[in-house]
Amino acid sequence: APSLNVDVAIIGAGPSGSIAASLLHAQGKRVVVLEKQHFPRFSIGESLLPCCMTVIEQANMLAAVEQAGFQFKNGAAFKYRDKYTQFDFTDKFTSGPGTTFQVERANFDKLLADEAQKQGVDIRYGHSVESIELQAEPRLVLINEQGQQQIVNAQFVLDASGFGRVLPRLLDLEKPSSLPSRSAVFNHIRDNITDKNFDRNKILISVHPDNQDIWYWLIPFSDGRCSVGVVGKAEQLEGLTTDDCDLNQVLTTMINQEPGLKQLLANAELINQSALLKGYSANVSTLATNKFALLGNAGEFLDPVFSSGVTIAMQSASMATKALIKQLDGHQVDWDQEYAAPLMKGVDTFRTYVEAWYDCRFQDAIFFDDPDPKVKQMICSILAGYAWDDTNPFVSESKRRLDMVVELCRS
Ligand code: FAD
């Protein structure tokens, strides 16, 4: 089989793969990105957080993203029964961008990949990574669409394969998530929203009126369409009985159970066949060694409620490439200390908030009528994605601080 020799082989051209490739290429490293599909291709994960704009800027892709006509986003709104609260991401504790976009990932991911390609990155579409050998140097076996094998020899492999989870599967790194298994049913809609008070610049997270474990996202796009989805344990989603059940029916039934959404989306039309993602949370036993590192969703994935996925994916690309450039330049890297631990700091901050969302402590805190403005700014920083900012007490002591706020609200 023909073979290719590079410094770094990257599996997957999603946000983590494209950004990592760009950052490495800018430092003169020989990179190849191996992508199974052709772009544009659908992906879930459409609401970005402002923090990821800093990484997009590092990769010299900010102008392209800003000029693409994506829906502007400046915050998040939450609704439960008659309570409504919103976070304005520009009013936050941590400095850095306070706005971002809501994007159809098919277009967004293609844009990032095209930008990387324009910068000179070699992306091979229609190439699926099938196996890996980790000898002195990693060796990947690919299959192209003609069924032909190719070999890539690299000094290092970055797995940016998202839910493909290529290295966790091939190297037996899969570990069950600490979070219970939840499922999502979602679709794009022509929303036909007429309510003048509806804020298209924010993601709307609505809580089911009778079961706070179930929630919905509504993510407006710039062209009169929205992404809408419902999340819950499989048995909580009415009509989700068999794998071939009518998912449009499940989604519509669930939407109609939340009076606010039912009214807002009274004239909405589903655009595609609704999709189901079951048991989306995932974890791994090892994030990196001196031969490979897992980026984004190929590592740990928690939960979509705070839209943290793409931000974590881009942060992981930024952190891993920094350590990798050092290693390729001949220095010793301690991957646990220099990559896994710092990345997990932010992931663990989000974990605190995800757990507190589902046990309702966080919901009590945000729907409290009289929040302390300084505390709200600190929490807002985390919701804007700045979950690695140690100067924020709600990051450095995320659980204790959040417990204190919850206690105050509940007393
Ligand atoms: P991906 O974007 O998934 O890219 C992986 C790429 O690898 C794909 O293009 C795939 O084709 C390729 N690949 C896979 N296998 C192979 C192989 N064998 N060989 C070659 N290539 C391969 N995140 C947000 O930020 N905001 C949200 O609002 C949000 N909502 C979500 C809602 C739900 C229900 C879920 C489950 C997740 C959500 N996420 C959200 C998370 C988000 O989807 C992911 O975190 C994000 O897409 C991860 O990006 P990535 O670069 O790691 O991988």
What does this structure look like?
- It is a single chain.
- The chain is of the alpha/beta class.
- The chain is built from 13 helices and 19 strands.
- It has helices at residues 15-26, 52-58, 62-66, 105-118, 166-170, 247-256, 259-264, 309-328, 335-358, 361-366, 373-383, 393-396, 398-410; strands at residues 3-11, 31-35, 71-73, 75-80, 83-88, 100-102, 122-125, 127-134, 138-144, 149-159, 174-175, 183-190, 202-207, 215-220, 225-232, 269-270, 275-278, 283-284, 292-294.
- Strands 4, 5, 12, 13, 14, 15, 16 and 17 form an 8-stranded mixed β-sheet that branches. Strands 1, 2, 7, 8, 9, 10 and 19 form a 7-stranded mixed β-sheet that branches.
- Helix 1 (15-26) packs parallel to helix 4, helix 2 packs parallel to helix 8 (309-328) and helix 8 runs antiparallel to helix 9 (335-358).
- The termini are far apart.
- The protein binds flavin-adenine dinucleotide.
- Flavin-adenine dinucleotide is lined by residues 11-17, 34-37, 43-48, 128-129, 160-164, 166, 184, 229, 277, 280, 295-298, 304, 307, 309-311, 313.
- Pfam families: FAD_binding_3 (PF01494).
- This is NAD(P)/FAD-dependent oxidoreductase.
- Residues 6-332 form the FAD-binding domain.
- InterPro entries: FAD-bd, FAD/NAD-bd_sf, Flavin-dep_Halogenase_NPB.
